[in-house]
Amino acid sequence: MALGQMGRAHVSGAPNPATTRALQKMAGFPQTGVWDDATDTDGVAALQTVMWQIATNQPPKPTPAPPWPLPKTHRIGPNPKGYATWHDGHSTDTMGRAALKKWQTQMLKRGWNLGPGSVDGQWGPYTAAAFDGLKTQWLIPENGLGPRVWEAAWATPIR
Fold first, then answer.
1. Which residues pair with 75 in a beta bridge?
2. Rounded to an integer, what distance in angstroms lies between the CA atom of residue 39 and that of residue 30?
3. Are 125 and 30 within 8 A, CB to CB?
């Protein structure tokens, strides 16, 4: 039985939507407020990692980011207007997938949950939630994963 299932079994009812959204935000999940299977297993695991880091006072230390692996003007993520400089991480986009896998790996090290499949080089809902969370946390006005959000994944303190 997962820790979250034990927790639900020993308290009256599932967490309320606000608490669930807070956990989902910490785990880098889409913030639905609904306690689902992913929140129950992956979310609790991500929360345990964060709690351990806080309890032991040993969060991962910021490190210098590797250089942005794409041309400076290129971005990774959904391509809103069909720009040629955007990489969507799909099967034919080997350059974008490799860069996205590296970023996903770093986000996992920092405690973000990228869901099932985690480091797959594809821009799915969990990667989008981690991107939005990091971007919002550090007030980075960037559309698509680019050099500033890339740098933040390595060099910013973990909040």
1. 86
2. 10
3. yes
For the chain, the domains span 3-55, 75-155
Structure tokens belonging to residue 140: 């980075």
Rounded to whole angstroms, the maximal C-alpha distance in the chain is: 53
The whole-number pLDDT of residue 9 equals 36
Q: What integer pLDDT is reported at residue 158 of this predicted model?
A: 65
Q: How far apart are CA 4 and CA 144, in angstroms?
A: 33
Ordered DSSP codes for 9-29:
HHSSSSPPHHHHHHHHHHHT-
Q: Go through 73-91 and write b for each residue having 16 or more CB atoms within 10 A of its CB, e for each that does not.
A: ebbbbeeeeeeeebbbbee
Mean pLDDT by 10 residues, the chain (159 residues): 37 61 69 73 62 59 85 86 77 82 89 82 89 87 88 78
pLDDT at 8: 37
